């Protein structure tokens, strides 16, 4: 539903002598590597599969990609338990394949971001193995949070903290002499010991990791658990030890958002600035920052810290016009006020997919309403000032897979708690590319390869080949929105002005003569401008904005 672009409209180019802040309004596509495309037929996506999919992503129109962890790992949390920060797990390829991926991405004009995990590593990382072998008081243990237990014989954990993925946040080790020994901290799983960033060696090691990948040509990093790293130095008891376990989020103020973490981001920013000074191209740091308020969020994107931090409040906002407006206002006021731009997200590898989340009821059967709302939300996000991130499969309108059998679930949350609540496997099922039966073109190396998570039969309705052939599909909505965003100077970075609108309708003006409106209600309302929409998320008759629909217009004649 994209109309012909007005002649002469295009985003002005910057003089060659100016900096290259490409990230300020970039749209980045998140690639969950093991579920994107399998080149070998083993049922697991890999780097060669990502490389094969780059032309597809270029055609979609994104500015770059963020890769989930592909480092050597025992895969207790699918790569977020890193055993070697400077390598590639054989299941995903090798460094030579990674270098080919970098070269192809550069040739296609796509930026490449890596996922880095500095809060914790794998219990199989040489650092942790050395710490275990060193025994109490050994220098290697200072890299982690080791502490003696409480109670008789030290048999109780050092404090009452709980892990976000369930259970106590401490595990006891057996010392080299075979006796029960100290405890170590893990805010996720026992296989992911938290690093102690108060030890200077940890910071030095991670600077080396950054430089290793920057020297191989990456354009930046998505930083896992960016509000973590430092814990209260005394490791005291929490007033609400079950908060993190209940929320599956960074709630415990003794374990998250400590002030010292900002020194780390200043150091990392200086490394990125060093590389940018060499060739004039910014290297990006974008943080997974889970903090209570937008004001605290803004502290992470001050001019000498992270370039961006994901603003999750839009993702968690209820489907309501007032809630969306207040969330957007708060972000623009507090975050854009630092000189950064807001980084909008509607979904990622840890969240229920938008089609299902917005359906208002469980199951694929509720996806009609959910799909309409997800399409409208996507168009709204792409119209907001700042940057945006799109999780793979959102451009296909994939619903969450809710009925995976217990025996195939891999999420450590399920295995530690026995509960399916907030598990993440349902949004990580491998993508459908083509055909009418699993593996739907996902596994390229051998016919009939079984994907690492089973794909439901209804994935056929969302396969990429069908989406490309149907101009009314999610894919074309995203592609058309991205094309306009790149071409219209009013979109991307800039200002936003709210317009008067009926209840449950948001209408905003972007720059000169571009209006985006979203009807959060169920009944049609008069359109806020006269004329034909430039782009809409669903059928949009002249002069009308249907329920659960978003539209963009050009022109400067608001309807009375």
Automatic annotation (TrEMBL):
UniProt xrefs under SUPFAM superfamilies: (Trans)glycosidases
Domain Glycosyl hydrolase family 13 catalytic: start-end pairs: 30-428
Gene Ontology MF terms: hydrolase activity
Protein name stated in the entry: Glycoside hydrolase family 13 protein
Family: Belongs to the glycosyl hydrolase 13 family.
InterPro entries, A to Z: GH (IPR017853), GH13_cat_dom (IPR006047), O16G_dom_2 (IPR045857)
Keywords: Hydrolase
Highest taxon, organism lineage: Bacteria
């Amino acid at each position: 539903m994209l109309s012909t672009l007005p002649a002469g409209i295009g985003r002005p180019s910057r003089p060659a002598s100016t900096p290259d802040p490409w990230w300020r309004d970039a749209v980045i596509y998140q690639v969950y590597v093991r579920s994107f495309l399998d080149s070998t037929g083993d049922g697991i996506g890999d780097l060669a599969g990502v490389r094969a999919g780059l032309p597809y992503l270029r055609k979609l129109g994104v500015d770059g990609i963020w890769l989930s962890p592909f480092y050597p790992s025992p895969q207790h949390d699918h790569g977020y338990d890193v055993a070697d920060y400077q390598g590639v797990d054989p299941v995903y390829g090798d460094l030579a394949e990674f270098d080919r991926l970098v070269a192809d991405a550069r040739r296609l004009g796509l930026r490449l971001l890596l996922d880095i995990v500095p809060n914790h590593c794998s219990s199989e990382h040489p650092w942790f193995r050395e710490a275990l072998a060193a025994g109490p008081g050994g220098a290697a243990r200072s890299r982690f949070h080791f502490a003696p237990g409480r109670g008789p014989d030290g048999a109780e954990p050092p404090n009452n903290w709980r892990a976000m993925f369930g259970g106590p946040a401490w595990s006891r080790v057996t010392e080299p002499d075979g006796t029960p020994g100290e405890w170590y901290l893990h805010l996720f799983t026992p296989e992911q010991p938290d690093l102690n960033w108060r030890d200077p060696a940890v910071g030095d090691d991670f600077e080396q990791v950054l430089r290793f990948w920057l020297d191989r040509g990456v354009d930046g990093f998505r930083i896992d658990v960016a509000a973590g790293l430092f814990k209260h130095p005394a490791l005291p008891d929490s007033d609400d030890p079950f908060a993190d376990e209940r929320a599956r989020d960074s709630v415990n103020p003794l374990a998250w958002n400590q002030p010292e973490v900002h020194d780390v981001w200043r150091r990392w920013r200086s490394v990125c600035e060093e590389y940018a000074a060499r060739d004039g191209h910014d290297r990006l740091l974008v943080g997974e920052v889970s903090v209570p308020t937008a004001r605290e969020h803004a502290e992470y994107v001050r001019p000498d810290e992270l370039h961006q931090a994901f603003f999750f409040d839009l993702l968690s906002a209820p489907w309501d016009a007032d809630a969306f407006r207040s969330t957007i206002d708060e972000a623009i006021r507090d975050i854009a006020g630092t000189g950064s731009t807001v980084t909008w997200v509607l979904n990622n590898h840890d969240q229920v997919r938008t089609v299902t989340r917005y359906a208002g009821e469980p199951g694929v059967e509720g996806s009609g309403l959910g799909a309409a709302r997800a399409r409208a939300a996507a168009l709204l996000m792409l119209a907001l000032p700042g940057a945006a991130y799109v999780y793979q499969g959102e451009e296909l309108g994939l619903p969450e897979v809710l009925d995976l059998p217990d025996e195939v679930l891999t999420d450590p949350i399920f295995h530690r708690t026995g509960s399916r609540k907030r598990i993440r496997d349902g949004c990580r099922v491998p993508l459908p590319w083509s055909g009418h039966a699993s593996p739907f073109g996902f596994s390229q190396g051998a016919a009939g390869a079984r994907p690492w998570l089973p794909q439901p039969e209804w994935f056929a309705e969302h396969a990429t080949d069908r989406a490309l052939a149907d101009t009314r599909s999610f894919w074309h909505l995203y592609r058309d929105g991205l094309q306009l965003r790149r071409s219209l100077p009013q979109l991307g970075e800039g200002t936003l002005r709210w317009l008067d609108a009926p209840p449950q309708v948001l209408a905003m003006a972007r720059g000169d003569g571009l209006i985006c409106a979203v009807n959060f209600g169920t009944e049609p309302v008069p359109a806020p401008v006269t004329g034909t929409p430039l782009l809409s998320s669903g059928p949009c008759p002249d002069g009308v904005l249907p329920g659960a629909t978003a539209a963009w217009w050009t022109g400067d004649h608001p309807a009375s």
